[in-house]
Design goal:
The protein is of the alpha+beta class. It has 3 helices and 4 strands. Helix 2 links the parallel strand 3 and strand 4. Helix 2 crosses helix 3. It starts with 10 loop residues before the first helix and ends with a helix.
């Protein structure tokens, strides 16, 4: 589980990142980030992904993956993971590979 000190929760923080952040894209997962003094991570899962239980499953999986990768992050930044349709069909290992790929593309790993 991602501890509370690493969570990005306020709507204003998400909006600021969307406006001023840098993007790294993959077909099913996107990353919006902005360098900062501390690491804060948020997740955005659209209703296009599916019903609430499907969206929650995707968020739980992403949180678990990011929590395991957190010690190896090289930069401090505010990060938002934005999901796209098709992510709900991926299994855990494929989702983990996509998450690692997008973090490498943004030069966090």
């Amino acid at each position: 589980m991602l501890s509370k000190s690493y969570r990005l929760t306020k709507r204003g923080s998400f909006d600021y990142l969307y406006r001023h952040g840098t993007k790294a894209n993959l077909p099913v997962l996107s990353l919006v980030y902005l360098q900062g003094k501390s690491t804060k991570i948020g997740f955005s899962v659209s209703k296009k992904i599916g019903k609430a239980h499907t969206r929650n499953l995707v968020k739980r999986r992403l949180r678990a993956i990011v929590a395991s990768l957190l010690p190896s992050l090289q930069k401090k930044a505010q990060i938002v993971f934005v999901t796209r349709t098709g992510i709900e069909t991926l299994d855990f290992e494929t989702l983990k590979k996509n998450t690692v790929s997008v973090l490498k593309k943004a030069k966090f790993l």
